[in-house]
Design a protein that fits this description.
6 helices; two-stranded antiparallel ribbon; single chain
């Protein structure tokens, strides 16, 4: 099990990497991972997450809390089991092979050491 401290932007970049189709195991692991790092309705309302017409995401981190509520923490710790980590790496490898990797995706994969070893080796060549 690996622990990652993910911010809102990191979660928004990782969620599209989770496959919605594939073999049974990938879909099952992906569904669980999407649920784990996704945004519950209460959190969406709290941060006012919006997808703009140009495709950008915007949000506002609340600075004040109501009495009796915990302050909102933008970076949260998530535990990934090995299968979840391997699933993200599998998708990263497919994106690399199809030359569909974006700078933002690369940066979040690099930040959390999710770049597959085979790609790391190619980068060293």
């Amino acid at each position: 099990m690996v622990k990652y401290k993910l911010g809102i932007k990191d979660r928004l970049l990782l969620i599209p990497l989770i496959p919605e189709e594939g073999n049974f195991i990938d879909v099952s692991v992906g569904r669980d991972l999407r649920k784990k790092i996704g945004f519950p309705v209460k959190e969406l309302d709290l941060i006012k997450l919006e997808n703009k017409d140009d495709g950008r995401w915007t949000w506002t981190v609340p600075k004040e809390t109501k009495e009796g509520e915990e302050p909102y923490v933008e970076e949260r710790e998530f535990e990934f089991v090995e299968r979840e980590k391997k699933l993200i790496q599998k998708v990263a490898k497919m994106l690399d092979e199809k030359e569909k990797m974006t700078v933002q995706m690369f940066e979040v994969l690099e930040k959390y050491d999710l770049i597959p070893e085979s790609i790391k080796k190619k980068m060293e060549e």
